[in-house]
Sequence to fold (109 residues):
Amino acid sequence: MKASMKFLRIAPRKVRLVADMIRGKNVEEALNILQFTTKSSAKPMAKLVKSAVANADQKGGVNVDKLYIADLQVDGGPVVKRFMPRAMGRASPILHRTSHVTVELNQRA
Fold:
């Protein structure tokens, strides 16, 4: 039971902070943690976990209450590059980083 979210407009380094909090947890516990986390990536992560649960439920033959987050990967996506004008005619790069997040759920025995 997998779900993925691509081109999330939050840097992977920031998303990994939230991902580390819920990796290996039960789905219900993970959603509770995400609900009370103030990081901006918490809402998209909660949506992703709910999507993975819906995928598992749709597949059938799975007890949704026994699901846990088996694998959660945060990879870097494409980087949008811009330039910011600076003093004395110079310019410095601005990198808008994106993330690709994949979650995999398994059922506890």
